Amino acid sequence: GFHGSGPSHWQSWLETQLPEARRVGGIDWEQPVLADWALAIRDEIDAATGAVWIVAHSFGCLASIVAMADRTEKVAGAILVAPADPNRFSPVGVRDPKRFERRSSAVNSVKSLLPDWPLSVMGLVVASSTDPWMEQSDAREWARRWGFVFHDAGDAGHINVESGHGPW
Fold first, then answer.
1. Is a pLDDT exceeding 90 seen at residue 119?
2. Cα–chain-centroid distance for residue 123?
3. Long-range residue pairs from 23-31, CB within 8 A, at least 24 positions apart, any chain
4. Where would I find the H helices in 21-119?
């Protein structure tokens, strides 16, 4: 996700637990540019010798869903945790918070760039009722659109280190 995942983040922990797990390379974690991140994820999917599992957090969920939309035959499944609201991002990065309104139109956002149909991939979206990056009802709707199972994580913030989630 945006700003990456430090050593105490659950993703970093998970990466140490699974011998074949690896973080996608070639991403500037400080520049959430959907096309760039999705391209790096596609490259990793294409380089894999078999089907891959994608585990993503926050903005990484948006980039992952774009990347896997046309690579479903190479994706065994996806776990998308605390996806970020696509209206918070423009095609070139974070939208100006002064102009962003959670329920505003998607003008100049990446929302229209996300697949809006069921993917033929087994998937799970995990979202919190207190996530400041996306309302849970919106995460539930995206899960429905993509044909993924939805899991309510309760009062879990953004499901990151700041909200108390290390090994998880």
1. yes
2. 12
3. 29/1, 29/2, 29/3, 29/4, 30/2, 30/3, 30/4, 31/93
4. 34-47, 59-69
Residue 122 pairs in a beta bridge with: 77
Segment 28-74, tens digit of pLDDT: 999 999 999 999 999 999 999 999 999 999 999 999 999 999 999 99
33 contacts 93 by C-beta, under 8 angstroms? yes
For residues 158 and 135, the answer to whether their CB atoms sit within 8 Å is: no
* 139, pLDDT greater than 60: yes
Q: Rounded to whole angstroms, how far apart are CA atoms 9 and 5?
A: 6
Determine how β-strand 122-127 pairs with β-strand 75-81: parallel
pTM for the model stands at 0.91
